[in-house]
Amino acid sequence: MNRNAIRGFKAYHAHVYFDANTSADARSLCKKAGTAFDIVVGRHHEKPIGPHPVWSCQLAFAAEVRDNFLRWLEAERGELTVFVHALSGNDLADHREHIFWLGAPVTLNLHVFDKHKRNKRSKQGTRPARTGTTGLGPNFD
Predict the structure, then answer these.
(1) Pairing with 16, which of 35, 68, 90, 99 sits 20 to 30 Å away (CA)?
(2) Is the domain covering 3-123 a CATH 3.30.70.1240 domain?
(3) Rounded CA separation 45/56 (Å)
């Protein structure tokens, strides 16, 4: 995928993927990212969460830091895979079309969005959809 697939949006997520052997590397990378850039560092999930089939840590960031942050992330990630996607308001499109990979792509569990969509419709009007406290889109924390 080309980085141009994620241009033109206001907010983004980068999901740093890791396993038991690379957990410390991922934790260090995410901590450095949070110190070096105006981003929001999410939880360090040692289990699959949402559409992410492997362990991950979410980094939420705005368009203003996108180019510098992605260059830095590419240089600093080592062997870690990072899944980057835009936040358009359409979760499925954001994880299928508005994407960019640093490292080896991983097959996402996109079926979670079918379930999320059904649940969202059934609960409509009862409570607001969870978008996190950052305004940087839905999160699976």
Answers:
(1) 90
(2) yes
(3) 5
Cβ-count burial 110-127 (b if 16+ within 10 Å, e if not) = eebbeebeeeeeeeeeee
pLDDT in tens, 73-113: 999 999 999 999 999 999 999 999 999 999 999 999 999 98
Continuous H helices in 1-141: 23-36, 66-76, 91-96, 112-123
pLDDT tens, position by position, 52-67: 999 999 999 999 999 9
Question: pTM of the predicted model, to two decimals?
Answer: 0.81
CB under 8 Å to 9, separation ≥6 — which residues? 63, 86, 87, 88, 98
